[in-house]
Amino acid sequence: MKLIRRRQTSSRRKLSPFLHVLLKTILPLAIFVLVRLELTAFAFIVVVLSKWRVVAVKVRHWPANFRANAVDLIVGLSTVIFVSLSSTQMLQIIWVSFYLLWLLFIKPRSNDLLVGLQALIAQTMALVAIFLIWNEAPETGLTFAIWITTYFSARHFLAVYDESMAKTTAYVWAFFCASLTWLTSHWLIYYKVISQPALIITAVGYGMASMYYLQKRDKLSKNVIRQFAIVLVLILLFIIVYSNWNGNII
Description:
Blueprint: H1 2-36, H2 40-49, H3 62-85, H4 89-106, H5 112-133, H6 139-159, H7 166-184, E1 190-191, E2 194-195, H8 196-216, H9 222-241
Antiparallel strand pairs: 1-2
Helix pairs in contact: 1-2, 1-4, 2-3, 3-4, 3-5, 3-6, 5-6, 5-8, 6-7, 8-9
């Protein structure tokens, strides 16, 4: 009897990873099919329902579970937006393939470098997507949306370092991004599909995250800080000088 139980347990353990990968593969395909059928709203619902495990625990664990899964949810919802706005089927396939890559290889990793990459990807995709579909939204709504996405991206990035000031630091970063969004929302400038605030926040966020990563590994020197500062200043100057401040697409 014990031998039979052991065999059943062993079979379930072998089958479980396969089913897990299969379900992850089905999700991007479902998004692609639903968008092609012009059922984009259902694609959003499918992405949200895929995170059912967030609430499949006691209520007191919901906030922690949502915070841990926020980045994954942001990438999924952003993917639906990009697939629905893609002008060609090939571009849709590329976005769906990227989402599959995210689910199978990027999101499951937990080392500090890849967690930082996860946060950067989620924040960048969310910024681009929000300004693409909601650029005419009220300033308050647009600012709040940016605040939410940048806050959870920062919390995800800082969580791997066991940072004691993670919550406060994430609030400060979100406040900076929200303030920049509110300021630039008066004259939104687009470089093809990427808005100016999305580009600025991404550049500044990448520089600060890189310096934080190096500092935690005791590799941050004054020379490195100076290099990052110069690069960021040059990027910002280029954006400011070569932008058409009439709010046009360039």
